[in-house]
Amino acid sequence: MTPNPLLGVIFHWLGGLASGSFYVPYRGVKKWSWETYWLVGGICSWIICPWLIASLMTNDLIGVLKQQSFSTLWWTYFFGLLWGLGGLTFGLTMRYLGLSLGMGVALGYCAAFGTLIPPILPGLFPQNAVAQTIDQIAKTTAGQVTLAGVAVCLLGIAIAALAGWTKEREMPEEQKKAAIKEFNFTKGLLVATFSGIMSACFSYALTWGKPINEASALAGTPGLWTGLPRLCVVLAGGFTTNFIWCVLLNIKNKTGYQYFASYVKKEHVHHGGLGGNKAESVAVSESMDLKIPVLGNYLFSACAGTLWYFQFFFYSMGETKMGKFSFASWTLHMASIIIFSTMWGWFFHEWKGASKRSHGLIAGGIITLMLSTVIIGLGAAMNGGKSFHDILHMLFGGQ
Fold it and tell me: Cβ distance 183 to 365 under 8 Å?
């Protein structure tokens, strides 16, 4: 397939928009504990969407997966399993830090580890799964430009995190909690660090799943969709981790009834769910509405789960357009997520009351991240020694 970095960047931006927006529908869920709505949304994210869309868009899905070696399937699934741990704590990160700061910190770690480990340590992955090592990339001008784009992206993430840290120090506690009810910078930072590092395992799972892409192409699947079958295996690993944890919390917190109940128990009206947090000791009046909007909760959760899946639907498409520098796709994806999640943070007034310095820093971080996507796209376009005129023609004049 002929590379088209401009189109690849656009696909990655669409994936970032989906990922940066997926948590928003969960705000419409009422009187369900975290573990309940997270599992309902997750079933759409990790099971229904990947299998349904791959079945519709690719050829011989089952046959392609059956012909894979045990090693390919196992490591693709296993790194998906580890990513699931990051996904679990990612939800906690949002609760403690909010959309903008939470994604900025967690995805900073995720971008760095997920982008750089495969080309730095190609021996950890199947033969030919990593297109180029870091040494090979750094020897060419195109590779140097692409690596510079990755560095600019990490700088943008650091600026965004600094903006969040500055805001946290400036704003009074009651103002922070008005936008983020459970705001806790220290706890959130620790959770975000773990979440980001473990979430990078998704990148490793995708790299291990490259033979699945190749088999799908041989089965006649158009190049743009060859990455979809691999998602079925990766997300099965994520589903395993999340399913076990959510069911354990349903049992521990006695919230399993919520999937089918019309009314919530009084002790769960203010329940935070997740990680054994105890219900808040808030008085519940007799007149309080305890009715669960069951249909609405399922619809909002399904919408959130579907949005989440589409980040990797577009990621798979974007990766096919980035050529030999497809390793930079992970950076583009992370940058796009932070850009759009920060915009949602502004929309939900998470930055209301912050100083001009904080606003200036977050704006600078977003501009830096946007610049990084342009630099990475330019580096990928330069691959192969194309002239600047050729690059402009490829980016804006078609193939």
Answer: no
DSSP state of 263: B
- Between 97 and 39, name the one with better pLDDT: 39
Q: How far apart are CA 14 and CA 258, in angstroms?
A: 34
The band of 392, judged by pLDDT with boundaries at 50, 70 and 90, is: low
Neighbours of 358 (CB within 10 A): 21
Question: Does the pLDDT of residue 177 top 60, yes or no?
Answer: no
| pTM given for the model | 0.75
Diameter over CA atoms, the chain? 74
| Domain assignment of residue 215, given as a range | 5-396
Closest CA to 164 of 358, 341, 344, 345: 358
Domain tally, the chain:
1
| pLDDT tens column, 212-245 | 999 999 999 998 899 999 999 999 999 999 999 9
- Encoded tokens for 164: 């969040």
Alpha-carbon distance values, 72 to 4, 61, 75, 170, 317 (Å): 28, 16, 6, 49, 21
Residue with tokens 């997966």: 65
Task: Characterize 299-333 residue by residue with b for buried, 16 or more Cβ atoms within 10 angstroms of its Cβ, and e for exposed.
Answer: ebbbbbbbbbbbbbbbbbbbbbbbbbbbbbbbbbb
